Structures are given as structure tokens and as C-alpha cells.
Amino acid sequence: MRLPYSSAVALAPALASILSVLVGIVVIAIFLFMYQRLKMRHRLRLNRRTARNWHILFAVVGIAVLLYIAAGYIYASSANSFAPYSAFSSAVAGSKDVIIAMNGTPSLANYQCASMISRSLLSMNKTPVVISIINNTCISGSGTASLSDCMNLYAESGIPIIILTNSSYDHIGIYSFYGTKMLVDGNPSYMAACYPSLLMR
After folding, report:
1. Helix H segments across the chain?
2. Could you report how far apart the first and last alpha carbons of the chain are, in Å?
3. Cβ-count burial of 45 within 10 angstroms (0-12 exposed, 13-18 middle, 19+ buried)?
């Protein structure tokens, strides 16, 4: 059963933590196996100093595993909230298609920006695909689907998406943990500048 896109994004940090925990368990298990093997083969000198050293080593490994789990969660959370432009450019480089979504009621500046982005993508030998997002439904040509299904499809296929939205708040955000997307919000003058097209030259 496929999760809704919003749920998959929300669960991403937790899933990353679980994966980190599993990796940590494997590392500790291997370490314990090696310790028991050395002990059974009488290759360890069992005295107070040796026991202390092994206790310190176990503590260091335990702390390293905890730091690894924390780092996995922090990375997933940060990529879920913001990612560098390099993450988006890498996704564009690895995909044949790039989606350009007109969210809501687009202005003339939105259409102009979409056209500028399309030209930049064509110069990179990429295929721009322009769709519309209206009332949580994505429309591509004569086909329609729920926004959740569309976003899941693009995320699973590794197709990056640029979403253009009219807004009084000028902002560009990039997110890359589950699917790679660039959200471009702004008023007509900000859209007319079309910074995403400049970034992709």
C-alpha cells in the first residue's frame, strides 16, 4: 500500500533513523562476534587492564553508533526542510525529464518564467514537461491525477519538479529527501526575474 506523499515526506526522518539503528546493530553485532571469537580462541589476555581497555572500546563504539543515528536523523530532517541547490542540480543532471508545475492560477509572469526555464532545460538536453496543479489535482495535457499520486510518481522515478506559485512572499526552497523539488513563490515582478532559469544555465 502506497503512503500519501505528505505522509511519506513526514515519515522520512523516522525511517532514516530506523535504518541508522539497524546499521548500528549490525556494527555492534560484528564487534561482539569478533570479541567472542578472540576470547574463545584464547587470544585475549583476561586481566584487569585488558578488561578496562575493552570496556573503553565498547563505550567508544556505542557512542559512535549513537552519533551515527543522530546524524542520520538530522540529515533526513534538514533535507526534508531545506536542501542546497547542488541537490537539485544533481537531480536534473540525472533525469531526462524535468516537471514545471503551475500551481493555482498562474499570472503572465508565471508563464513567462516557465518558458524561460524550458529554454534553459532544452539547452541542457532535458525535456521540460509543463503541468498544472489545481485543487490538489495535477493536470498534464488531458490526463489528471491526485497531487499525492503525481508527487509520489515523480519522487519514485527520480524526476525533479519546479513548482511556480503566485505569492506575496518571495522565496525559493529546495527539498530533496523524498523526491527533489524546487518551490518558487513570488509576486509577478519576482516571477519575471525567473531566478531558476538563471541557475540552470
Report:
1. 5-40, 48-81, 85-93, 108-123, 147-157, 188-193, 195-199
2. 40
3. exposed
- d(C-alpha 126, C-alpha 161), whole Å: 13
The C-alpha angle with vertex 159 and arms to 154 and 163, in degrees rounded to 5, equals 75
pLDDT for 17 equals 74
CATH 3.40.50 fits 85-199, yes or no: yes
Question: What is the pLDDT, as a whole number, of residue 92?
Answer: 95
DSSP 118: H
Determine how many CB atoms are found less than 10 A away from the CB of residue 151.
Answer: 25
Rounded Cα distance between 181 and 98, Å, is 10
For residues 112 and 191, is the Cβ–Cβ distance under 8 A?
yes
Cα angle value 72/75/76 (rounded, 5°): 85
Residues of the chain with pLDDT under 70: 1-12, 42-46, 76-81
Residues in the chain: 201
